């Protein structure tokens, strides 16, 4: 018995050595991030409220956040130290790709360092002028058998209900749809999509997205959800939204009460960095979860933002604390103007391989590459099988220890 305990204790020491570097990173990172939030974000919030002549009650109102989106370099330079050259560059990019960010999300940024991950997801850079890639690499324009619809699979499809977002993320895969003004699809086009679903009995799963569908007024959104829910063969409804991240004030008791009437309903959001999990974002996620809505996260690998094994582990573990299940990690698509965010598949696989064994299965999403041309999702997995035939299989564990299973 003593020998077994000694072996167990020795193994525990090995496991501690395996995780201690991450724990040191986590403690230091969370302390630094907390200082940013407690000091920098509150100061930025105060400055923003003063600039707009607003109150704390205004700040918590999503309509105010939306009305006061920052979308010009002249306004941005009131808060960030931008050179005339940087202002000129932002103005130039604005003529090609629209940009905007909410006061809330701007408050999370580092005003002195545009390379800070939160800044890079929101503020245009000169790299967006690179012409490589395509505006529609997924060929969504060739997979829309009815208005507003994208259909790639036999039994599920997407309804794109708006081009509007609270913030226009710089890695957006649908930047071609943004336009110069916020647009909600007219009701006759949405009805055409719903009529198509009614007539297509194999469709069991409908994803409502855009743009961001939570940008719609409650009554407009409910009208769409109710019509989809009334279709007998539709089993589940999903909503894709980044508003819990970029404008968490949108998640109101009225919204969650409305959504809770249409179960089974699922929401997938997109946190890409631990710095996005603020107390406001946590509150929004908690409200949705308390309404019985399962939450999933669809992170995108973004170079210079989250292509780091410790950042991904910390993000996913923090998400579970606010009741969001890490669902997918997407490999970045080859969208024109976003090439500076690209990483190699090998880099993504190395991070996924690290996660296995270093965190719980709940914190390990699927790594997905969307095949170009709209050919669907391809799951990417590290290689654990080294050799296999009719008699045996040789595998490597998460620690790269070799094991053999004989049939």
Describe this structure in words.
With 407 residues, this protein is α/β, with parallel strands linked by helices. It has a domain at 140-363: Alpha-Beta Barrel (TIM Barrel), CATH 3.20.20.70. 40% of the residues lie in helices and 14% in strands. It has 14 helices and 12 strands. It has helices at residues 2-52, 56-59, 62-67, 73-76, 84-94, 103-107, 117-122, 187-198, 218-229, 243-246, 253-259, 279-290, 309-321, 345-358; strands at residues 149-150, 156-160, 205-209, 236-240, 265-269, 295-300, 325-330, 366-371, 376-380, 385-388, 392-396, 402-406. The strands form 2 sheets. The protein has a 9-stranded mixed beta sheet. Strands 10-11-12 form a 3-stranded antiparallel beta sheet, with no helix packed on it. The longest helix has 51 residues, at 2-52. It is globular. It starts with a helix and ends with a strand.
What is this structure, in a nutshell?
This protein is α/β, with parallel strands linked by helices. The chain has a domain at 140-363: TIM Barrel.
């Amino acid at each position: 018995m003593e020998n077994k305990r000694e072996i167990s204790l020795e193994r525990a020491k090995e496991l501690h050595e395996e995780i201690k570097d991450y724990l040191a990173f986590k403690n230091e990172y969370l302390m630094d991030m907390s200082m940013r939030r407690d000091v920098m974000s509150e100061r930025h919030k105060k400055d923003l409220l003063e600039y707009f002549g607003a109150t704390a009650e205004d700040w918590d109102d999503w309509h105010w956040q939306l009305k006061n989106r920052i979308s010009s370099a002249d306004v941005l330079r009131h808060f960030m130290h931008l050179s005339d050259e940087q202002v000129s560059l932002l103005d130039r990019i604005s003529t090609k790709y629209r940009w905007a960010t909410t006061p809330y999300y701007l408050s999370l940024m580092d005003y002195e360092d545009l390379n800070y991950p939160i800044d890079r997801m929101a503020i245009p850079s000169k790299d967006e002028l690179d012409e490589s890639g395509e505006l529609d690499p997924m060929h969504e324009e060739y997979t829309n058998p009815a208005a507003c619809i994208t259909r790639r699979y036999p039994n599920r499809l997407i309804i794109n209900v708006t081009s509007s977002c609270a913030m226009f993320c710089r890695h957006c895969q649908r930047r071609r749809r943004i336009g110069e003004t916020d647009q909600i699809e007219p009701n006759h086009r949405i009805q055409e999509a719903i009529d198509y679903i009614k007539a297509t009995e194999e469709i069991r799963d409908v994803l409502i997205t855009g743009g961001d569908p939570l940008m719609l007024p409650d009554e407009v959104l409910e009208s769409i959800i109710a019509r989809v829910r009334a279709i007998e063969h539709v089993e589940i409804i999903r909503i894709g939204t980044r508003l819990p991240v970029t404008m968490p004030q949108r998640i109101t008791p009225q919204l969650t009460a409305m959504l809770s009437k249409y179960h089974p309903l699922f929401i997938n959001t997109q946190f890409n960095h631990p710095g996005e999990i603020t107390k406001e974002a946590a509150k929004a996620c908690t409200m949705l979860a308390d309404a019985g809505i399962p939450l999933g996260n669809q992170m995108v690998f973004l170079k210079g933002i989250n292509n780091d094994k410790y950042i991904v582990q910390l993000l996913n573990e923090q998400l579970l604390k606010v009741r969001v299940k890490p669902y997918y990690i997407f490999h970045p698509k080859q969208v024109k103007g976003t090439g500076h965010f690209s990483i190699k598949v090998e880099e993504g696989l190395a991070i996924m391989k690290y996660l296995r064994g270093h965190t719980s299965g709940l914190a390990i999403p699927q790594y997905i590459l969307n095949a170009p041309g709209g050919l669907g999702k391809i799951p990417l997995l590290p290689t654990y099988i080294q050799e296999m035939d009719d008699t045996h299989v040789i595998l490597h564990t998460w620690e790269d220890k070799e094991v053999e299973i004989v049939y």
